[in-house]
Amino acid sequence: MPAGWVVCEPGSNFDALYFPTSGVVSLLHMMENGSAAEAAVVGNDGMVGISLLMGGQSTTSCAIVQHAGHAYRLKPREVRAEFALGGRLQHLALHYAQSLLTQMAQTTVCCRHHRLDQQLCRWLLLRLDLLADEDLLMTQEQIANTMGVRREAVTEAAGRLQNEGLIQYSRGRIGLLDRAGLELRVCECYDVVRQEYRRLLPDPT
Q1: Which of 104, 126, 159, 195, by CA, is between 20 and 30 Å from 189?
Q2: Is 197 helix (H, G, I), strand (E, B) or coil?
Q3: What is the pLDDT of residues 60-89, one digit of tens each?
Q4: What does the alpha-carbon distance between residue 149 and residue 24 come to, in Å, rounded to a whole number?
Q5: CB-based contacts of 32, cutoff 8 Å, min separation 6
Q6: How many Å apart are CA 181 and CA 166, to the nearest integer?
Q7: In this predicted structure, what is the pLDDT of residue 101?
Q8: CB atoms within 10 A of CB 95
């Protein structure tokens, strides 16, 4: 899945379910004027196309690959048939749907009540949890577009985090310098999402 690839557009039917093994897919909600805001991210912790198992054929969000990676691509008919058996897949899919709803709800609350630098910490940590390395390839313009804010605001917030020695930003590459410090700086929204995911989908090992 190359970066920038549109997995599904709003209102269009999913032709497959995608289970990422690497990379990050951003679920964006689009406005009529072309602006957008991210509702959630999906990586090796979940699937893209959960609405197909919830009774819907399409979704109102736009799924875009933000960080390149790979995924298993499965036909809806086969996944639905397995889901209908009521076994392990159904159990995991329903729990994942609940964790995804939690992430979306917490994102809404975070954008309304917390400072942009705290939101940026949450934004960074959620992605770092899904990637194998500690570097993100994202321009400030791209970050601003997913967060639904002005680029200048992202520049200012990222500058504060860099001055505190938490990240290193240069030419579209964000390097993590101090994860513990970033976790101390982030608002409670990150931990709410992480704890709910761990509760619903514990590590099988």
Answers
A1: 159
A2: helix
A3: 889 999 999 999 999 999 999 999 999 999
A4: 20
A5: none
A6: 6
A7: 95
A8: 16
- Asked whether the beta carbons of 152 and 140 are under 8 A apart, the reply is no
The model carries a pTM of 0.91
Question: Could you give the C-alpha distances from 97 to 85, 140, 160, in angstroms and in order?
Answer: 18, 30, 35
| Helix or strand run (H / E) with residue 91 | helix 88-113
Q: What is the largest CA-CA distance in the chain?
A: 54
Q: What are phi and psi for residue 18, nearest 5 degrees?
A: -120, 130
Residue carrying structure tokens 């790979």: 70
For residues 88 and 95, the answer to whether their CB atoms sit within 8 Å is no
In sequence order, the β-bridge partners of residue 48 are 18
**Angle, vertex CA 88, rays to CA 87 and CA 93, nearest 5:** 105
Residue of 158, 201, 203 whose CA lies nearest to 46: 201
Identify the three-state secondary structure at position 142.
helix
Structure tokens at 30: 């689009």
pLDDT at 204: 57
The rounded distance, in Å, linking the Cα atoms of 200 and 196 is 6
